[in-house]
Amino acid sequence: MTRNTLRFKDEKGTVEDWQILSITALAIIAIVFLILKLRVNPALSLVIGAAGLGLATGLGPTGTTDTIMQGFGDIMFEVGLLIAWGVLMGAILNEMGAIRKLVERLLTTFGPKGIPYALGLTLGTLLQSIFLDVLLVMSAPLARRIAPKLGKYGTAKIATAMAISLECGIVLMVPGVATVALAGLLGVPLGSMLIFGLIVIIPTILVSITIMNFLIQRGLWDTEKDEQPFDEDLGAGATGASEVPGINAPAPEIHGTNPVPASDPLSRVGLLPREVAARSARAPREPGLFVMFAPMLLSLVLIGGGALTGMAGWSSPVTDFVSTPVIALLIGLLGTSFVARRTIGTKRVEQAVVGGFRESGQILILTGAGGALGAVVAASGMGDVLGGYFSASTVAPLLVVWGIAALLHVAVGSVSISAITAAGLLAPIAPTLGLDPVLIALAAGAGSLFFVHVTSNTFWLLQSMLGQSTRGTFKSCSLGVSVASVVALGFTLILSLFL
Asked: Which of 2, 170, 427, 490 is most exposed, with the fewest beta carbons within 10 Å of its own?
């Protein structure tokens, strides 16, 4: 089907670009309205918007539904198993209590001054296979304990470091779920996304934390107004975490007969999964920290190594097979499962897998819905229209990509949804921009970080679990992640000079 048969025509039989632009803009506004005002699930909203766009631009009932299903299937073909493997690996690591052990090691190794940077880099890179809310809940109690060791502004510094690293990791670091989705939607090889994502995310986290620490120490933070009392004996329950939107979960079940010692900071946080709270009930057979994370590291090395050998023009059947992302992550998942079975037993590994499938389901559906929207945008001819404007624009295309994603995030309030929606809109025009698709993915990811606010679960988890007031969370989370958004764009622009 050609562009002229897909785009509707005016009375003279010619296509008007402003009509396509207007209809697409109305479709995006409708999606935002459905999510925010009518509380329709984001995945359903994206599909409804895609259907409306297809019908309004002349695809017809059959063409619209076929395009939606084709777009959904194509993106699942690209990233479905990758997202599932990554989330399952994270769920098993979570079950083993690997995060707690890692954060304790970081504190011992880097000390109070270096811990915000070390914790930020670790959360933003190594641990991105773990579902964000779980990762935050697991690390927050230890971060809260670390904060007083950083001085007067300890809470501000540790909260800012966590906000920046957690959100950056989602959209810039493989195997973060939104990163994998961005790569799939824009046709970026996962190995390239891993390598160039690392090049951007590491300096972004370091520079952003440094900027925010400078501002915090120069009067940005008011300890009396930006922090709130935190009852260490009551834990998260004292902070009102149970009233956080979207986080009303039943109290965790504690298995085993041996109680967790009162001195253990994890025992004072009511939101923690039962697997960690029960860590003292299992036999003391924990493997070393390196052994816990070795399978995950191996999978990332295989993916990155495959990308590097491909750039060098060297290949062999064996290396090509094991460096394929779906095989590399499967190897990491099997290795993590093997370590966990010897550590916590088969039953608990199976429980973690069930939880991982539950967590990955919503991400898979949302990613597929983003692919459906992108397919309709491409079929409607919007890609040709936008491609022409981008090519003729005097504004750098990457700045416009960043701006689109930023506007979507301000409107929708979800980093993942805005990144995936932006990628769905931009995928059809990627070939016309003359840019490496990885740059578009990074710019879209950076833009989707701009202004995390009250519609985000992360915002409220950081507020409740780290003893901040809402005002303080706007500074540490909203401002901090916005700084990271701009910094990430800057490093993406620098990277574009070499690609």
From this structure: 2
Q: Do the domain assignments include residue 393?
A: yes
Half-sphere exposure of 487 (CA within 13 A, CB side): 24
The pLDDT assigned to 242 comes to 32
**What confidence score (pLDDT) does residue 443 get?**
92
Helix (H, G, I), strand (E, B) or coil at 468: strand
pLDDT for position 263: 39
Q: Residue 257 falls within a domain, yes or no? A: no
Domain presence at residue 258: no
Domain count, the chain: 1
Taking alpha carbons only, the member of 484, 483, 442, 497 closest to residue 195 is 442
In this structure, the number of other CB atoms found within 10 A of the CB of residue 111 comes to 12
Q: Please answer whether residues 139 and 126 qualify as being in contact, where contact means their C-beta atoms are separated by less than 8 angstroms.
A: no
The answer to whether position 260 is within a domain reads no
* Dihedral, CA of residue 218, residue 221, residue 224 and residue 226, to nearest 10: 180
Provide mean pLDDT across the span 327-351: 90
Instruction: Tell me the residue range of the domain where 30 lies.
Output: 3-7+15-249+268-496
Q: Which residue has the tokens 């940005």?
A: 220
Instruction: Answer whether 220's CB lies under 8 Å from 475's CB.
Output: yes
pLDDT digits (tens, 9 = 90+) for 418-431: 788 777 777 777 77
Which pTM does this prediction carry? Answer: 0.67
Which one has a higher pLDDT value, 369 or 402? 402
Residue 492 CA to residue 307 CA, distance in Å, equals 19
- Which is nearest to 95 in space by CA: 356, 360, 461? 356
Give the residue from 164, 83, 162, 163 showing the smallest Cα distance to 130.
Answer: 83
